[in-house]
Give the backbone structure.
Amino acid sequence: MPIIYFRLIIPYKRSRESINSHKEEKLYKVYSFEDRKSTDSHRDEKLYKDYSLKEWSNLTFNQKRDIWNHYWNRYDNEKGFKTRQNIINAFKDAYPELNKLSIETGFGYFGWDVGMIYVILEDSSIRVPSKFSDISINKGKLISRVNSKEIIVSWKRYGGSGNFTLESTTDHTL
């Protein structure tokens, strides 16, 4: 795919203090994007691999964001799978009481492919942290059960509501 370079010219007016009272001067600011080599030049593809939890915690926020935005992919679930599992397991270990109360905890994609940890609960009054290891957490409240593997969930932070297929084989009593 060819890289397209362009110049953006935006008209603006100077403030009244700097303009003579008789004439209005129209100026243009020119923004050039020709300096960029590529739209992907900020990506560090050496980071695109699986991590242990210790290695993941040593990454900066910007490195983590680059990984979950450009490497992890809902359509190729193998990319970063071990890292996500390590993070989910650490979350479950860090919040054992929340894990006992949850119907399911895992990693999923919401809305515009936003990857998040999700926690589905029967009781919406149970508090859930908003982030863990720099990854946002989406809290879901069970609305109803469609069948043994499918439920209807209302998401608090992202994604509205809809059907959700349970990954765990445990039949949770409602």
Summary: The first strand starts at residue 7 and ends at 13. The radius of gyration is 24 Å. The mean pLDDT is 78.
